[in-house]
Specification:
Elements lengths: L8 H13 L1 H35 L2 H50 L4 H4 L2 H43 L1 H48 L1 H6 L3 H54 L5 H42 L4 H6 L14 E10 L5 E11 L3 E6 L5 H8 L7 E6 L2 E2 L5 H6 L1 E4 L8 E2 H6 L7 H10 L3 H6 L7 E2 L8 H14 L4 E5 L7 H15 L3 E5 L11 E6 L2 E6 L1 H7 L1 H17 L1
Parallel strand pairs: 3-10, 3-11, 6-9, 9-10
Antiparallel strand pairs: 1-2, 1-4, 4-5, 7-8, 11-12
The structure holds adenosine-5'-triphosphate and magnesium ion.
Adenosine-5'-triphosphate (ATP) binds next to α11.
Length: about 600
């Protein structure tokens, strides 16, 4: 939930350690802010003094002195303002860079389930815009807000000292202006929120349609897409126009009020007293200069209030992510969990395992089966029956709802997660390739794995040929999402990736679904060789590839309805027999 407070102290507390790290930048920035705010108060006073004292005395020497002082103050104030902005911006960039790195680190350690509820595209867009808001808070916002507030206070003090009664009277129009400013800002805020929303919708639409451009072109739907976009753009354009019109009309009126009406009021209040000799002309000049100088910054402050609220909402979201517990913390939090050394000599057992992704939607219902070391076990069953879910639990991507998975009698949660995963080589249904070349995609940035081992792995899975065809070999860059490789080629790479780490347990999820028959045969042979010394779990739709497994486990709607060798299942399970008939008959027909 976003908090809608102007300043949220809890968030400031969260940010404090980050500011502390940059305390020198922070303190020097603040000091400069204090100095520049004071300097801005001084130069009107110098002009006032020249008018009141130097000119009547006809003292040319003094006039030069004060003129020099005036120029010095102006130049100094400009220089310091420049450095103050640079210092604070630098601090903002440093803090945001740290936050971003920490968030990326957090994302890499969050339980996989987090990303089921938080679409990645949206997450990235939000991180980017949240970080940008925080950067602005430090660079532009802090300068305008605090600098101008300091100046405003200093100005009131000087004005009260110079003429108490008139300043007291002036508080009335000043308050009116400030209040109407804030009203306008909250009125415009609604428009700008709507514009931002429409903007991200439009960007989302454009991104998604461009990603699917080949489908749109094939179905000739370019016109429809454009008209969808056009509708959204029209709403945005109208909202934008209304906001801009309101804003600029108001600023126009405001400029007139400040630059003309306010000066008239000042002259009206002070001129009679000047004539009576109660107030000096210099005081009138100081007052006029001050009021001229404060209102535009006030307008900027009021404009920035929405931005500040947004920045605090962003900080809230950022720390919400940073404060999530990573998957490793789940273990660390529990003192009972002294990690057990991992030994897998005999058996992996699923004991009464139940699991749900969402509340009250049981996906696995009391699953029991075991895998002996060295066995090849196949998981079969219809789409959605829970096969991938079962292996996700074995890899500890999700927490089991009830029951447990035991390796030689020890619950897998009692193992160090990293160590446990090192035992497993996983080839998933969708192959995912990362930015980088083929080498890095196979060894996943682990540079202890030398090229020799990579070539060995490629040779094993029968992918050497494909690599030699490429001009740069394993240094060939992979395009976004592996677009420059065929689906089968990607699959071969993911095989190589799984075995290069020499895991004890190999899991193949539908791994040969997208390669041609010849390649599949090749892989099958290579795999048989690799799997000789390994324990393997193979998920397959095509029974032909798994009938020789040591055990076939037949899933149906989150239950295991039969388990055993192919021949046992043929005898025991009608469902299995039906599946076999269906597949082998259609095969024959096709052949
Ligand atoms: N991340 C998820 N969040 C919510 N529900 C999920 C998630 N992943 C899978 N499911 C649901 O869990 C059920 C089992 O899915 P699972 O992926 O285990 O099936 P499967 O047997 O591997 O199917 P297939 O053969 O098509 O790969 C399905 O009904 C699916 O909709
Ligand atoms: Mg699956």
């Amino acid at each position: 939930m976003e908090k809608k407070k102007f300043i949220n102290f809890k968030m400031i507390k969260e940010l404090t350690p980050y500011i502390k790290k940059e305390r020198w930048l922070f303190l020097s920035g603040l000091t400069m802010m204090l100095i520049t705010s004071t300097l801005r108060l001084i130069d009107p006073l110098i002009i006032g003094h020249i008018v009141d004292k130097v000119v009547p005395d006809n003292d040319i020497g003094k006039l030069y002195q004060f003129a020099g002082l005036f120029v010095t103050v102006i130049v100094l104030s400009g220089l310091l303002t420049y450095y103050q902005v640079i210092l604070l911006s630098k601090m903002g960039i440093k803090i945001v860079t740290r936050l971003k790195m920490q968030m990326f680190d957090k994302f890499l350690h969050l339980p996989v389930g987090y990303f089921d509820h938080n679409p990645v595209g949206e997450l990235i867009a939000r991180v980017e815009s949240d970080c940008e808001n925080v950067r602005q808070l430090f660079s532009d916002l802090s300068v305008t807000i605090f600098g101008n507030l300091l100046f405003f206070l200093g100005m009131l003090i000087v004005m009260f000292l110079r003429h108490f009664n008139v300043t007291l009277l002036l508080l009335i129009p000043i308050s009116i202006i400030i209040i109407s400013l804030f009203l306008l800002v909250s009125y415009l805020g609604k428009f700008y929120r709507k514009i931002r929303e429409l903007n991200s919708q439009i960007t989302g639409i454009i991104t998604e349609y461009i990603q699917g451009i080949s489908i749109i072109q094939l179905f000739n739907q370019q016109k429809r897409v454009i008209s969808i976009l056009d509708d959204k753009s029209k709403i945005k354009r109208n909202t934008d126009a209304r906001a801009t019109f309101t804003e600029y009309s108001f600023w126009g009126l405001f400029g007139f009020l400040i630059e003309t009406v306010f000066i008239v009021i000042l002259i009206y209040l002070l001129a009679p007293q000047i004539l009576l000799g109660l107030v000096t002309l210099g005081t009138l000049i100081v007052f006029i200069q001050y009021t001229q100088r404060i209102f535009w910054p006030l307008i900027m402050v009021s404009e920035n209030i929405n931005q500040i609220q947004r920045a605090f909402a962003s900080i809230y979201r950022i720390f919400n992510i940073l404060n999530l517990s990573s998957e490793y913390d789940v273990d660390k939090g529990n003192e009972k969990h002294k990690y057990q050394p991992i030994r897998f000599d005999n058996l992996i057992e699923f004991r009464n395992v139940s699991f749900q992704y969402k509340e009250d939607e049981l996906i696995l219902n009391n699953i029991n089966f075991c895998i002996k070391k060295g066995e090849k076990v196949a998981l079969v069953g219809a789409s959605g029956s829970g096969k991938t879910t079962t292996i996700s639990l074995l890899c500890r991507f999700y927490n089991i709802l009830s029951g447990g998975i035991y390796v030689d009698g020890i619950h897998i949660n009692d193992f160090d997660l990293k160590e446990w995963r090192k035992k497993i080589g996983l080839v998933l249904q969708d192959v995912y390739l990362f930015p980088g070349d083929i080498r890095e995609n196979i060894r996943i940035y682990d540079d202890t794995i030398v090229d020799e081992k990579i070539f060995e792995a490629l040779e094993y899975v029968g992918a050497s040929e494909m690599i030699t065809r490429l001009k740069n070999g394993i240094a060939t860059e992979i395009m976004e999402r592996g677009q420059n490789l065929s689906v089968g080629e990607k699959q071969l790479l993911s095989f190589a990736r799984a075995i290069v780490f020499d895991p004890e347990i190999i899991i193949l999820d539908e791994a040969t679904a997208s390669v041609d028959v010849l390649t599949e045969k090749k892989i099958q042979k290579a795999m048989d060789k690799i799997l000789e010394q390994k324990t393997a779990i193979i998920i397959a739709h095509r029974l032909s590839s798994v009938i020789h497994s040591d055990k076939i486990i037949f899933f149906h709607n989150g239950n295991i309805i039969a388990a055993g060798t192919h021949n046992q299942l043929l005898n025991e399970s009608n469902e299995y027999k039906k599946l076999v008939n269906l597949q082998f008959l259609s095969h024959k027909e096709a052949g």
